[in-house]
Amino acid sequence: MRFLDEDEELNPIVSAVNLVDVFLVIIAALLIALAQNPISVFSAENVTVIKNAGEPNMEVIVKEGKEIKQYKSTGDIGSGEGLRAGVAYKMADGSFVYVPEGEAVEQGNATTGGGQP
To answer: Which ranges does the record mark as transmembrane (predicted)?
Structure first.
């Protein structure tokens, strides 16, 4: 009956069971980290993540509900098409005043008497 008296330290199955336990703990930790990720598909929150802010390779990731959009910067500054719509001035109290160009400015000058009729 020497088989029944065999030492458990020499049994390879015991160490394999310990490895399985370690891997289960690692898997549980990874699942918790995945669930707490801000852009996780399991959360219903709206999230905006900016990676490499101010750099030429900047990325903006926007999650609204279950929809995720990713925008990548091209590195170009001020490029694009458009027209100048007006001028914005920062006041001493920190507020901004927008002055549109075109017809609205001409009407504003005519009512204040500062422009030509």
So the answer is: 12-34
Same domain as 68, residue 18: yes
Asked whether residue 52 falls in the same domain as residue 102, the answer is no
Do residues 13 and 25 make contact, with C-beta atoms less than 8 angstroms apart? no
Whether the full predicted model's pTM is greater than 0.70, yes or no, is no
Name the E strands within the chain: 47-51, 59-64, 67-72, 86-90, 96-100
Query: Which carries the bigger pLDDT value, residue 52 or residue 76?
Result: 52
> In this structure, are 65 and 117 located in the same domain?
no
The token duo for 61 is 């990731």
